[in-house]
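To whoever is on call:

I kicked off a structure prediction for a single chain this morning and the downstream step that reads the tokens threw a length-mismatch warning. I double-checked the sequence; it's 224 residues and nothing unusual in it as far as I can see. Pasting both halves so you can look.
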Amino acid sequence: MEKIEEKKPVSAGEVCWNLFNNLNHILVGFVCIYITYGAFKTGYSILTLHTILCTLGYQLLMAEGILALAPGNVWSYFFTRKTKTILHWILQAIGALFALVGMIVEYRNRGRHFGSLHAKLGLASGVFLIVTLVNGITNLYAKEMSRFIRPVFQRFFHNLMALATFVLGMASLYYGYEKRWVRSIASDEICWMLKIFGIFTIIFSSVAAVRNGYEQLRNIVHRD
């Protein structure tokens, strides 16, 4: 008689994670669709280009790039680890390009630079972003460089820098939702919704990255 394989029971924690993961995707989509709608509504300008590029770069592409590697992520669940890593790279690279171009066009358009908290956080994120991209490339050759530096150090540093980049970029968006351009297309209630949804995205897009970082740190500290 053929033995029936027993299915592993799903824990309450996994159910909650899946619910929040799905909700996170919905909120990311809402914010990006709303900002894109506002961009088409107001028409082309450098400020519009800056807003839409940075929003899509951080809140859509980078967030989804991080989630691509997360266990149980709804759209990458059945992909192999190699495919997830490739998708992570593609989404992060395009997101980084969007964010950097968005920052550059706004910098060239303004006479006064980095006077607001929104701008300072954006600048900090841009610096971290460049470092993260360079480190991401070296991380691809972690095995070849293992005679000089342990791969776990490479992965931990990349994870830490990428997380800092994302959080700083999302924090910049948070304060960006207080700017005149956003208030011209949204009510006070919608502005607060965008900010709250952004906080939610920071938290639930970072859970897996924080967990991986913790495991990497344990491997570093408890090395035999």
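Update from on-call: the warning came from a stale cache, not from the record. Cleared it. Sanity check on the structure: Residues 1-7 have pLDDT under 50 and may be disordered.
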